[in-house]
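The instructor's notes for this session suggest beginning with a concrete chain rather than abstract definitions. Hand out the sequence below and ask the class to guess, before any prediction is shown, which regions might be ordered.
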Amino acid sequence: MRHNEYLLDKSYFEKVAALFNKGQSDPQKILVVEHAVINSLDFIDYLCEHYEVYFIPKPKSIDRKVLKHLSKTCTILDVSRKELAGVDTPNLIKEIVGQDTFAIIDIGGYFVPRLSDIQKQFKGQLVKIIEDTENGYQKYEDKLSNNSISVPIQEKQYTNLISHIRSIEKELLAFLAFPAAIRPTIYSTNIIESLNKKIKRKTKAKEQFPNEKSLDNFIGVQVISYNEKNFNRIHRGFGQVKDTLESLFD
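After discussion, reveal the predicted structure:
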């Protein structure tokens, strides 16, 4: 099972874990709502090395291999968002944490509906709630504004990344200016990946290149060949919006 290298930076996990104990005791247990996918694996593994973890996978993003791996390092809880919104949620948490201190890592505000009950029942035990999404964080903020309950909530801080994404939002969403039928072709990398595989396959067949210029020439020939071969090909959706596309570029 391959891991994304950028997720293997241990200092990243240490920064996230450090959010748990700013002026508070370190939690003994952690309840985590997260996607059971390869990108989340190293983060959950890191938590399991330092805490007793109870993992709630989001139902629409479950990689069975990842879930099988995590079942060996933490406790998997088969509970849905709807069930967590029920009145039994505090009892469920009580069965898990007992008298231990704990923290919650949420994604999408799963625990918001029972927030008041959780705070009342686990005062002194609940160290902090960390919400991973802006939407979920807003749900917690709205809940707190309507109650006198005080709960320590921390939003994961990706300020620089968010600012950068917002600065290039227009370019990122440029494909939305085109008809819906061809948007998947525009925003996907399938065509580029196909060309890259062709070039890789062709270069492997060559034993060596005498210099960088010869490699450039060889790749150039492959690109020209690829373009000529696919020149008359009409990708899915483009045929039915031909008139619309022509009007866009008049």
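Then share the key points. Confidence is low (pLDDT under 50) at residues 1-13. The first helix runs from residue 10 to 18.
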